[in-house]
Amino acid sequence: MFGINCASEMLAKAKRDLVVYRNAPTPDNIFNLFVTIYHIEDYLIKGPRTNRRKRIHKKWTKNKIRTHFGNLYIIMQFVCNKNKHLKLRDPKLQQIDKNAIPSTKSSLLNGAALNEITLNSEPEYHLSYNGKTHELSELADQLISKWDAITY
Fold first, then answer.
1. Taking Cα atoms as reference points, which of 72, 143, 71, 136 lies closest to residue 102?
2. Beta strand 101-105 pairing with 132-135
3. pTM assigned to the model
4. How confident is the model at residue 44 (pLDDT cuts 50, 70, 90)?
5. Order of strands across the sheet with 101-105?
6. What's the sign of the alpha-carbon dihedral 83, 88, 93, 98?
7. What contacts 1, CB < 8 A, 6 or more positions away?
């Protein structure tokens, strides 16, 4: 509406949001970053169109995108929607919500184990699920790389 009209512009916004998050890792910036990353899909699937019916990116469907992202898709969807909605309605996301463990590591006293994080550094946000822990800026990097591979 105000300058973002296609998937590549949304991807560029996600890259800017990642820089903002890395400079100031806060819950607000997590929200902005992951909502943007997840909703690149909308721009890739639903628009833009050459006319009222024909999509420019017609080869990308939700199923093909999910296959391209593999296990990262549901994690991306979960982080976006868990930050955006008070209550998750999707049964798959509810299952993750029951089993996922969010954590924050900070350089404050008792914020992390000794030598686990640099003193006077910004906090780190992590999500552990299915035996794997994702640091959110690294997760965002992986997701953005996945979008980069299919967005033009």
1. 136
2. unpaired
3. 0.79
4. confident
5. 101-105, 124-129, 132-135
6. positive
7. none
